[in-house]
Specification:
It contains 24 helices and 16 strands. It is α/β, with parallel strands linked by helices. Strands 10-9-8-11-12-13-16 form a 7-stranded mixed β-sheet, sandwiched between helices. Strands 3-5-4-6-7 form a 5-stranded parallel β-sheet, sandwiched between helices. A two-stranded antiparallel ribbon has the order 1-2. It is globular and about 75 Å long.
Length: about 550
Amino acid sequence: MASSPIESGLSSVGGALWPRGSALLTNSLLNKGTAFSERERDALGLRGLLPPRVFTLEEQVVRALGNLRRKPDSLEKYIFLTTLQNRNETLFYRLVQDHAEEMIPLIYTPTVGRACLEYGAIFRRPRGLFISIRERGRVAEILRHWPMSDVRMIVVTDGERILGLGDLGALGMGIPVGKLALYTACAGLHPGYGLPITLDVGTDNAALREDSSYLGLAHPRVRGADYDAFIAEFVAAVREVFPRALLQWEDFGNTNAFRLLNENRASVCSFNDDIQGTAAVAVAGLLGALRETGGRLADQRLLFLGAGEAGTGIADLFVAAAISEGLSAADARRRCWFVDSEGLVVRYRPGLKLAHHKLPYAHEHAPLRTLAEAVDAVRPTALIGVSGQPATFTPAILRRMAELNPRPVVFALSNPTSQAECTAEEAYRETQGRVLFASGSPFAPVTLDGRTFTPGQGNNVYIFPGVGFGALACGAREITNEMFLAAARRLAELVTTDDLALGRIYPALTRIREVSLELAVSVVEEARRARLATLPLGDDLRSELAARRFEAVYRDYV
């Protein structure tokens, strides 16, 4: 994986070709803005196109940070950062890297959820490719419209299940754009290698179809054979046009997510972050919690609220981990219970047919209608929310978890913050501070009885950038569940005693570059073990991968 995909332009300076004048200033990957030196301004035709003073990158970061913090709310800050990214990507990524804890919630969860809802109203400039189903037969042609020919990472959505917000159709583009920004900021993927794509097949959100600012096809979702043929053409076109690209499926609905992953993972290097990434970050959180509670992963009992792709993905990876600790597959699955919209998932529920992905976790038990009843029956050591239903972990349920466990584990993982099953404050207050808590979106520290707790954010940002970067670096033919399990175990190992003392079962976001590098190393090691790596790497993987990362520093043109 080369350090830069960009070596083209119009002006020969110092042996390389670069755009000149205003063409250079409008190229976000090459633009330095007011940081162009006096010599560069003369050599590249920039004299007079910029104010006379030359600023350093560090000075630009200070100015950008001040401008950002003056914005009145998170959506305005998101718009500011998007505009900066479209103008000067080096400055954008330096700002994000230097202030990760402040910036990541603005470019991704929770702010990206609001940004997707408002995407039509705040739309300024297209970023990525919108490919609609009416372009069937031309998908490869459209992929070739992308200005970069050596794409390595594609994040694609059809917008049917955006976070916990449901079907947003074409407005879901904010998710692929945000994920790719995190690949660069957190793992060091060169931004020129990324391509965000939205596949527009319509939307079943009637309010959007009637909205005059909606950007997508204003008809109901196409399903069935026509949808499948469109997806098959897309996958084939990716293999043809960008043969070295990794494909990340993002925010597809449950009816499609599992089968698209299973049908395509062997033919194109790909993974589904909602299924596998969420699973890895949750299992890492469970492993981190065990450092406080003691015991083995295989001894835990998990109760999930929500039986979609995220929940069953977590359960599947938990089962794999428990098997490695000596349990049989059947015994491991019996430690995972689910509550869906109809109540406890059991073998027989009169009048209801179980979806295929729920069958392995449908145990023999009398039907129960409520989560509270399920908590009493299952007596879980960990309660995991992936439902997108806010305030469902009620005070009574949280208190019951504290009665059942000296250190109850409660993960409210639904995004954005407005969809979380409970708040951090509720979890700590109702358990007298004994809970080991994590959420999908960030919550502020909580002070209770003189002690301050810093809740962990069980967000996929800890997993997918490192996994994807590692898979690309070694040319993995396939991304396996074993790679995600290796990443989960390494993430849990990176939690420090200081983190645990604060009540945090994930590393601080300030360490995200270090974390992503460590996970990339673990993925490469697993790919080698499974003989799935196709590119040679040296013995010092950590140093070699670190050297391949994009660094947000300006290059000298002359």
